[in-house]
Give the backbone structure.
Amino acid sequence: MKKYCNATNLKILAIVLMVFDHIHQMFAPVGAPLWLTYLGRPVFPLLLFLAADSFHYTHDRRAYLKRLLVGSWVMTLSTFLLQNLLKNPQVVLMNNAFSTFFVAGLYMSFWDRLVLGIRERSFRKIAGALGLCLVPVLMAAPLLAVAQLSFNPNVPGYVIRALAMVALLVPNIMTVEGGIAMAALGAAFYVLRKYRWAQIGVLAALSALLYLRGGFQWMMVFAAVPMALYNGQRGRGMKNFFYIFYPVHIWALYILAFCLK
């Protein structure tokens, strides 16, 4: 199969489909058609596929993960501010793909460290890799602690809300957008990055499970088409564009939806 699409082409495709999806999210109460969100179903797996490929070639992985973590903080704080300053009960903001990419990135790092530890027969490195694997799970501890406090009638509500806000700043396997399934899919794409059809097979299997559960999230399987056409080339590159466009377009659409409610 001749492969025509580079990373830049796929990012542009994902961004266009993502905008359609978020238009439905913000304007469904005023009649935005459901097919707009159908178009957005392939976006998350496609971006995770590109993130897995990008992570492999990133020279400074710590800086890469830091950018995602900062992006996650920005999305969490902006969501809190927007929903409190511009209240629109018809729209629920829960968009934070950065958190999912961050957690998936941790699992990608875990895999590399595990493979290196096994290759070098280093118990210390294997143990360190397994410890890193547990980090996204352990990072849910602050949120669980806040949930436990919420049952205590002696703790004021504003304290619970403040603590919950702080806890949500810590990306973890329980709260990432798309849940553990999307984080695991990103990690699987990375482990299988040399085997394109295996990556597509994992996507198809997860989509089949989602189909059995009902709903339309299974439509993400259509990301297999641009994945199959990917030629492994970077293209012109859009290193920082997504970090800026993603939050800004969500803010703009939410503000517009608030004005039109």
